[in-house]
Amino acid sequence: MKRLKRICLLALLFTAPLFLTSYDDNKNFEVAKNLDIFYALFQELNAQYVDELDPNLLMQHTINKMLEGLDPYTRYIPESDVERARLAIQGEYGGIGALIQTNNDSLLVIAELYENSPAHKAGLLPGDIIVMVDGYDVRKKSNAEVQELVQGQPETSLKLGVQRYGLPETKTFTVVRQKIQVASVPYSGFVGDSIGYIKLSSFSQNCANDVKKAFQTLKSQGATSLILDLRGNPGGLLVEAVQIVNLFVPQNTKIVYTKGKNALSDAQFFTREQPIDTKIPIVVLVNKSSASASEIVSGALQDLDRAVILGEQTFGKGLVQTRVDLPYNNVMRVTNSKYYIPSGRCIQNKDYSNHFGEKSQANTEPHTFYTLNKRPVKDAGGIVPDKIIAEDSLTGLVRYLVQNNIIQNFVNQNFAFADTARIAIGKFSCNDETFQAFRTFATPLLANYKSATMQLLENLQTTNNAEKLLTNTDIETLKRTTQNNQLQELAINKALIKTLLETTVMQRLYFERGKIQHGIATDDYVKEAKKYIADKKLYADVLQGQKK
Q1: Cα 221 to the center of its chain, rounded Å
Q2: 537 is catalytic
Q3: Sign of CA dihedral 13, 14, 17, 23
Q4: Per residue in 8-29, pLDDT tens?
Q5: Per-residue pLDDT tens for 448-494?
Q6: What are the φ and ψ backbone dihedral angles of 247, each rounded to 5 degrees?
Q7: What residues contact 449, with CB distance under 8 A and at least 6 apart?
């Protein structure tokens, strides 16, 4: 009797708040039965397991492992992380204003500073390795753990101990946390006499208003066409995406709709305001890192034949998450629907319906849909651009230079904020003298670099030690030849390294806006976009399905 009461109570507690639509009786019983089993198991484990268990950690680990079997976006947010998650969506938080990433050695590196941020004002530099936070050694901590230590209430201070290239001892900085507002539009300007350009880096709260203001300013200054850059934009708030499309298409146009298992998950999103401009030619730039809300904007503008899309096929995230409040101030973000753009296609790339299976499967059978002008488009996983532009992939050597902060450390050693007096955005060029100085700087730091060929040879040597099919002399000769050729990779990749040096210098002196503005002049994507804008017939032909 007692057990039956517990089953009924658990069924009431767990099913009533979460599901307003009714399940059949068998489903309800299965839910209640398994919750009862889990409750008993959890109780017995805590009572009888040989070592002392922390119920909170055990439950959090259990929940996380369960959700991992569903999809990458359904996740549990414990009370301690709820505020941080909310601030991330809103684009603001109390912190130091620095992007922290993990390098090849699993150390935490300051990858980027935000302009006028506390970290910038305190004297921290990109490339600094964080080793201490308020006296705690964080060299074995995860990025998330360090973020938790670094973020906090505005106007409170913390001490960061960092290892800086060229300094033998740890350097300590006192940083005062501030409310950090991350700009969703880091740069807007002109890339030609009348070609406006807007870079949108995230779909955080109020980003549509930021795009609107930037566009209105460009128009007032004579822009007669627009390039909207969504490369690297991972997405964010769906409503902001709809509002951005609303700037360019008529009122009451359906932009996106969602469909889920329950009727409450179904929704349609229309443009609600009068647009600013429904005629101006638009080119949207995307790449494989453009996801979610970026795909809604680019896909809707493509489906409505309102813009030409250039770049790489996008990421393919067509799953929608909603917030569910849990007891004790915990939260779950659960995937409850898929979104569909005006043509009716869903751009979701991977199929996660095989829950707890070995791997998710890519959608392999794309279907054909049609734009407003009857152009065929596919639900091939992501948005397929009207014109494909492949991004240059980094060679093994260049990737090593970037991931090990060798380029960043060289720039830190040779350029400082004071150099803005002599180096202007768009005017700096990495000459042969600077490249040679970098080559001298980098060569001794490449002692541990191994090309893919060298790694194959070392693996071959290991295998050959067992099979004895080749002599060690044969393999060592190949390794010496490869080692000598590796030293020539700096010269072979000279042009690309020069470009990366220029970009890093601009980011060092002028932050993200300077990096973007400076790079536009040599950006292959922007060059291609300008061709489509300059050739009115080419632009029109694409939207009519006649030419790419």
Answers
A1: 32
A2: no
A3: negative
A4: 444 444 444 444 444 467 878 8
A5: 888 888 888 888 888 888 787 777 788 888 888 888 787 788 888 99
A6: -65, -25
A7: 396, 397, 400, 486
Half-sphere exposure of 100 (CA within 13 A, CB side): 25
Q: State whether residue 140 is helix, strand or coil.
A: coil
pLDDT single digits (tens) 492-525: 899 999 999 999 999 999 999 999 999 998 999 9
Tell me the angle at which helices 25-48 and 55-68 cross, rounded to the nearest 10 degrees.
140
Q: Is the distance from CB of 324 to CB of 267 less than 8 angstroms?
A: no
pLDDT at 473: 82
φ, ψ of residue 37 in degrees (nearest 5): -60, -45
Segment holding 300, helix H or strand E: helix 293-303
- Residue 99 phi/psi, 5° resolution? -90, 120
Instruction: Determine the 3-state secondary structure of 349 from DSSP.
Output: coil
Cα–Cα dist 455/449, whole Å = 10
SS3 223: coil
What tens digit of pLDDT does each residue of 293-349 get? 999 999 999 999 999 999 999 999 999 888 899 898 889 999 999 999 999 999 998
Q: Look at residue 76 and give its three-state secondary structure.
A: strand
Please say if 259 is a catalytic residue. Answer: no
**How many C-alpha atoms does 337 have within 13 Å on its Cβ side?**
17
Residue 303 known to be catalytic: yes
d(CA 303, CA 341) in angstroms, rounded, equals 8
β pairing state of 361-362 and 195-199:
unpaired
Can you give the pLDDT at residue 548? 55
Amino acid at position 545, single letter? G
What do you get for the CA distance between the two ends of the chain, in Å? 72
- Active-site residue among 199, 317, 387, 515? 317
Q: Treating both helix axes as pointing N-terminal to C-terminal, what angle do 2-15 and 25-48 enclose, rounded to 10 degrees?
A: 110
> Which three-class secondary structure string do you get for 113-132?
ECCCCHHHHHCCCCCCEEEE
The residues, any chain, with a CB within 8 Å of residue 251's CB and separated by 6 or more, are 271, 272, 273, 274, 275
What is the distance between the alpha carbons of residues 281 and 284, in angstroms, rounded to a whole number? 10
Residue 442, C-beta contacts closer than 8 angstroms, at least 6 positions apart: 401, 406, 410, 490
Task: Express each pLDDT in 415-451 by its tens digit.
Answer: 988 899 999 998 899 999 999 999 999 999 988 888 8
Residue 420 · residue 510 · CB < 8 Å: yes
Contact (Cβ atoms closer than 8 angstroms) between residue 517 and residue 192: no
Distance, in Å, from the CA atom of 412 to the CA atom of 522, rounded to the nearest integer, reads 23
Pick the catalytic residue: 202, 204, 292, 294? 292
Res 352 pLDDT > 90: no
Residues shown for the chain: 548
How far, in Å, CA of 196 to CA of 186, rounded? 14
Contacts of 452 (CB under 8 A, 6+ apart): 396
The active-site residue, picked from 128, 210, 303, 379, is 303
Q: At a CB cut-off of 8 Å and minimum separation 6, what does 263 contact?
A: 21
